[in-house]
Write a structure and sequence with these properties.
By secondary structure, the protein is an all-alpha fold. The protein has one domain. Helices cover 86% and strands 0% of the residues. The protein contains 2 helices and no strands. The chain is elongated, with a radius of gyration of 18 Å.
Length: 49
């Protein structure tokens, strides 16, 4: 039982850390930068850019 509880605790901590880092990235404007770069790469691959 302790091993399963430990894994659940680690998973929860990682989930919370991921949510905090995603929120921090959105707040500092990184989301827009990633979207612009991704859209440029996709249009270049299709020969539109």
């Amino acid at each position: 039982m302790d091993g399963k509880r430990y894994l659940n605790t680690v998973r929860f901590i990682l989930l919370v850390a991921a949510a905090i880092l995603i929120a921090a990235g959105i707040m500092n404007g990184s989301m827009n930068d990633v979207f612009v770069k991704a859209s440029k790469i996709c249009t270049e691959c299709m020969g539109l850019g």
